[in-house]
Amino acid sequence: MGKKGSSGRWMSEHLNDEYVKRSQKEGYRSRAVYKLTEIIEKDKFITRGSRVLDLGAAPGGWSQIAIKLVGKTGQVIASDILEIEPITGGGFFTR
Question: In the structure, how many helices (H) and strands (E) does the chain have?
């Protein structure tokens, strides 16, 4: 069975999305990093030294942000049933 036209439209819209382009340019794994950054700026719930558990972490965009924020004194554990490529700077990844 072939793909429906809606899949092609979604892919086209996705690839032309400004946040998708921005995330690729800035080296993030997903456009979702901008939503997490917005939430963190508002509520300040991840700080240096925090311990973060990222469930359903693939492809790892939120973990990228969390690793930067917690610093060397914090810890990020990312887990997903999908494989997650290690992120430079730390973190523990499980499948």
Answer: 4, 3
